[in-house]
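Quick bug: DUF1266 domain-containing protein output formatted oddly.
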Amino acid sequence: MTSTSPRTRALAARRPWQPPTEVERRLRDAALAGDEKGYLRVLAETDLYLYLAKDQVDAGGARSWRTTEDELGNWCVAVRTPGERLPRHAGSVASCRTLEDLAEHWPDARFSLYVNPGSPSGMRLRARPWDRRRWKKAARAAGTDRPTTLLTKLTGPRSGPLAHALACGAHLSVTNGVLWNEIGDVYRDYERDVHLLRDIWGTGTPQEWQLQMNALLAARNSPPEPELALRVRRELSRDAATLGADAWRRACAAALDELEIPEADAAVQDVIGRILRYEARFRADGLLAPDGYVRSAVGYDYGRAVGFARWGLSARLCPAEAAEGAILRAGGACREAYDSWEDFSAGYALGRVLRFDTEEFGEWYTAVLEPHRLLTTDPGSPWRTVGWDEAQGGNPGARIR
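Here's what came back:
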């Protein structure tokens, strides 16, 4: 049996409804048309969220699926799509699944699948063995490689300082397939987020989260050599119409002597060569204008600070006020360091590839190139709708030149 609830139909009939994202709009249209095949197609293309008891997840081991009664008294397993995720609650956390995951591990054929309960985008789907075979078929048709997309919460901030700051984290939002303009539980899976923060970032407590956040906001999470070299070039370029590589190299060597760290010269000279080669590739791929260059790579730490704040919030390592405050500080730091979204994006990209890519131009490079292209061309992108100087605050006079 497939159905929308009487309450959902009544709500849709009584008042206008703004879908949180494009996903929910497509689901609503399919539900109203009674198009189960189309509804499954949308579900197969998006993340689905089960809500589990936090204490069970933290304890590890077996955990029970939460069930609920729908308006008709039928027992269901409820899932939510990205725009319909529940408000944060101390006792429950989200677990990300795909439609194929649900088909493979469904607990009992007596339970229905209830998508977005209480929403006009909701639908209840029977989950008998032959129904679940249809879910798998829809999942296979959708494929495993989802296209690079931008997820916007239409009811979230889309202008002003907070939207600007959140857009500074849009590289990671696109890469991770999460909403760019939401503060809350936006990352994909609580348990996975907790493990990644602990294993990759060494962050398992609120105190450790704050230490890492402080380092990102101070641009101390990345190696210092690239920023030193870029700062020397910025200063030289103020007094020269053109700046050759040899002059840049000599100036860096002199700066290191003045700082009494000549032993760092080999590393700085190496990074200058890497910067020049990456900038040439950036120009060829449209990350830089034909005559452009990267002024600063601090955008990589600042952009990650936005994602790290939201990630820590999802993992319950910081309160919402601390996450929002860090995000706004990161946005302000970006405005001080750069003059445009394109300028910021090139700096973010250079910081990332210098840290991880080793001039292979592989996944570490494409993971910034593809979001850059999407964010600079999609008409709905915040980089097209939120002006760089739209946000108030910061200190434009202190911008890096």
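Actually, after a second look the formatting is fine. The longest strand covers residues 48-53. Closing.
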